[in-house]
């Protein structure tokens, strides 16, 4: 299929799904999920959500260089960061600084969805800092989004390396301003932010003493992990609920294609799936469906949540109940419609579904996916419930050239940060990183799932989904989640304790 799609966090070029006619109380959702037929990686989670918690912080700006790696004169830009010193015990007592590595979206949204960091700051006496990633939210160079996203020349400074350098420069200057040079910095991050946190610990060990990298697929590059793993994991999430649910979804693609080829087939599909306006192609419908399945796997949390969409607990179980539980004689397409309504219409507020027909909008993650973040993805013939697809690098590259006038460098990330022999490298040259992953999360396929050394630790939650550990605690948290967070706290305390001990020894000399 020629049409490209997109990924948010990490995802292929995401298909932007806009659910129309939602009551104004609901946030707009840009679901950008993977499509196996597309050249793009699926996206990490979307960008919009309401703040649920009252989090107190101050919003500040910091003037950053556009290019940290040259001495050419470029205009500077204003990086937004959120800061709270409410619980910080201050420089004299070497109060720690918790720095969340902002990822591909509005930093206020990540702050609101990273309750863990806010909840533990008081017991550590820590300052909390959420710097925004350049080119996202309000941290836009060249004065406006339109200018910044104009072309490959203006987008050239949107890279992970520049973002890490932003964090490094900001924290260094901030510490100097507070006379807090000796305060230890601990990094946090989820998804792409988790990748940044772990990479920052490796690249700037003198700036941060440790990193909690949650659901960070740092191995989802080149051939480090099988290309099929992402879609296989999504598929397994459905299969573990019910084989017939998996089979119905697997069969549905051919049914949709056949229906679409009939006279008036697209009209019929429009009616069956209650789409606003008229469906333009079966591909648009298929993209919309596979977006939902991929996101469902990411947010397959054990309790009701409202991360991307309002959803019940164990949402995949609920989808499969609808697909399997429809009366005998219900058609495959009607079953799919009922199932998918759990995702797109859980609140029952949606009058009709609007499928965005322009998924190519200039989007920061699409640019990153077209430059450094090339995560090859295929869909296997038997193990996946999605249509079979083999990743095609030439097609991917052609599309990037068309969209941005840029050529992806699929080997750059592993050259810059490693990946091929991560265990040996991290064992020798790294320390103090927690890689946490939930095995229900399709991104866990590209995660570090093995303990590497005494202090580079993999925490694996078989029942966990996308960075659930970073979310605020709830009354419904299962025991394993409570234990997981307790282990993380213990490990972080250990890093800080070691740091203080070293400081004391040095000052004794
Ligand atoms: C930060 O900068 C943005 C524009 O770059 C501006 O709109 C905003 O008012 C500034 N905020 C503060 C707190 O200075
Ligand atoms: C991008 O736009 C700027 C400003 O219009 C222009 O100077 C530059 O040559 C353009 N670059 C490319 C690669 O088209
Ligand atoms: C540090 O202080 C200077 C001078 O007051 C200010 O311009 C700068 O923005 C501060 N930097 C940070 C990171 O807060
Ligand atoms: C959404 O759910 C409500 C309540 O079940 C229903 O009345 C409505 O028709 C559904 N919308 C669509 C587009 O299916
Ligand atoms: C990969 O994409 C290129 C360019 O679009 C195309 O010519 C080629 O046939 C594709 N390869 C396969 C195996 O589909
Ligand atoms: C790694 O070690 C920690 C203890 O530091 C342990 O809790 C965890 O279960 C181990 N992880 C794996 C994947 O074995």
From TrEMBL:
GO cellular component: vacuole
Keyword Protein transport set for record: no
One GO biological process term: proteolysis
Record SUPFAM superfamilies: alpha/beta-Hydrolases
Lipoprotein keyword on record: no
Signal peptide: 1-32
Keywords: Glycoprotein, Hydrolase, Protease, Signal
GO molecular function, a single term: dipeptidyl-peptidase activity
Pfam families with a match to the protein in the record: Peptidase_S28 (PF05577)
PANTHER family linked to this entry: LYSOSOMAL PRO-X CARBOXYPEPTIDASE (PTHR11010:SF38), PROTEASE S28 PRO-X CARBOXYPEPTIDASE-RELATED (PTHR11010)
Family of the protein in this entry: Belongs to the peptidase S28 family.
Protein's name according to its UniProt entry: Lysosomal Pro-X carboxypeptidase
């Amino acid at each position: 299929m020629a049409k490209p799609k997109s990924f948010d966090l990490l995802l292929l070029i995401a298909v932007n799904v806009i659910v129309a006619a939602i009551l104004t109380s609901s946030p707009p959702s840009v679901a950008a999920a993977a499509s196996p037929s597309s050249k793009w990686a699926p996206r990490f989670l979307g960008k919009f959500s309401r703040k649920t918690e009252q989090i107190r912080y101050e919003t500040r700006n910091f003037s950053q260089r556009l290019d940290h790696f040259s001495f050419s004169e470029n205009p500077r830009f204003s990086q937004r960061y959120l800061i709270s010193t409410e619980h910080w015990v201050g420089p004299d007592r070497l109060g720690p600084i918790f720095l969340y590595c902002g990822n591909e979206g509005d930093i206020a949204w990540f702050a609101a969805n990273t309750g863990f960091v806010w909840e533990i700051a008081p017991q550590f006496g820590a300052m909390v800092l959420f710097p925004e990633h350049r080119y996202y939210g309000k941290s836009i160079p060249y004065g406006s989004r339109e200018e910044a996203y104009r072309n490959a020349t203006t987008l050239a400074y949107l890279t992970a390396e520049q973002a890490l350098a932003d964090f490094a420069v900001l924290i260094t200057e901030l510490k100097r301003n507070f006379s807090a040079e000796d305060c230890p910095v601990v990094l946090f991050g989820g998804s792409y932010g988790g990748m940044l946190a772990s990479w920052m610990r490796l690249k700037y060990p003198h700036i941060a003493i440790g990193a909690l990298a949650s659901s960070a697929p740092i191995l989802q590059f080149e051939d480090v992990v099988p290309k099929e793993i992402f879609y296989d994991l999504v598929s397994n999430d459905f299969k573990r609920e019910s084989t017939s649910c998996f089979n119905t979804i697997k069969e549905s693609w051919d049914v949709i294609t056949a229906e679409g080829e009939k006279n008036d087939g697209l009209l019929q599909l429009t009616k069956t799936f209650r789409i606003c306006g008229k469906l333009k192609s079966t591909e648009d419908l298929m993209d919309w469906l596979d977006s939902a399945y991929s996101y469902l796997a990411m947010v397959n949390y054990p309790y009701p949540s409202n991360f991307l969409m309002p959803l019940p607990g164990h949402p995949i179980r609920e989808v499969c109940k609808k697909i399997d539980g429809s009366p005998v004689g219900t058609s495959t397409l009607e079953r799919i419609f009922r199932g998918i309504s759990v995702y797109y219409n859980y609140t029952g507020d949606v009058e009709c579904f609007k499928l965005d027909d322009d998924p190519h909008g200039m989007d920061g993650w699409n640019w990153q996916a077209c430059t450094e973040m090339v995560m090859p993805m295929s869909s296997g013939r038997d193990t996946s419930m999605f249509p079979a697809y083999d990743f095609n690098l030439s097609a991917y590259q052609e599309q990037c050239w068309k969209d941005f006038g840029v050529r992806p460098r699929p080997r750059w990330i592993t050259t810059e940060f490693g990946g091929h022999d991560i265990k040996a490298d991290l064992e020798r040259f790294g320390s103090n990183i927690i890689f946490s992953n939930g095995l229900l999360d399709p991104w866990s396929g590209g995660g570090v799932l093995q303990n590497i050394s005494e202090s580079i630790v993999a925490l694996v939650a078989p029942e966990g989904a996308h960075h659930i550990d970073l979310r605020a605690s709830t009354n419904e948290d299962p025991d394993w989640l409570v234990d997981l967070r307790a282990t993380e706290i213990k490990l972080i305390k250990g890093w800080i304790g070691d740091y203080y001990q070293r400081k004391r020894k040095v000052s004794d000399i």
